[in-house]
């Protein structure tokens, strides 16, 4: 279990460093989630669930859970070109699903239910897999994006003569060029 927590924590940390398609706040929260994952690995729960190790584990796990639930919202992108995993529908959907799973976990803890372990693993499973889903959508979006067309050094003006260089992919007025 400790090795798995180390691997997941390290992957979240590295993914946050490399996920340039996501806004900075989302990347920071994902990296924080990775750090909390590493701290959970070095703070195993004590046998019997009591003692300072269990308290440290509970605090670090709770903070890690909060960060890993919030990072999709902080990574939200509204641009039409945004990868599917960073768009509003996906980020609100996964966050809502995680909140429902966390509510189930809390219900199991408070009621002394028989499915505490299953609820906990469901929460951590989604939190572990979501960064992978986002990376897959980023890679897919990069492959779908058409290759950049070479921009000519000069472009024909409205009169058909060669004119000044034009900014790629920008309308003339937006580029500040008078025609």
Task: Describe this entry's structure for a reader.
This protein has one domain (2-143). It contains 6 helices and no strands. It has helices at residues 2-18, 24-41, 52-74, 88-111, 116-144, 172-175. Helix 3 runs parallel beside helix 5 (116-144) and helix 4 runs antiparallel to helix 5 (116-144). The longest helix is centred in the last third of the chain and has 29 residues, at 116-144. The chain is globular and about 55 Å long. It starts with a helix and ends with a helix. Residues 148-152 and 162-179 have low confidence and may be disordered.
Can you give keywords for this protein?
mainly alpha, globular, 6 helices, 179 residues, disordered C terminus
Q: Measured on Cα atoms, how large is the radius of gyration?
A: 23 Å
Structural class call reads: mainly alpha
What shape does the CA trace take? globular
Number of helices: 6
Oligomer: single chain
Please tell me the overall pLDDT.
84
Number of strands: 0
Helix content: 55-70%
Biggest beta sheet attributes: none
Strand content: under 5%
The total number of structural domains is: 1
**H/E element order:** HHHHHH
Uncertain segments are 148-152, 162-179
Question: Distance between termini?
Answer: 66 Å
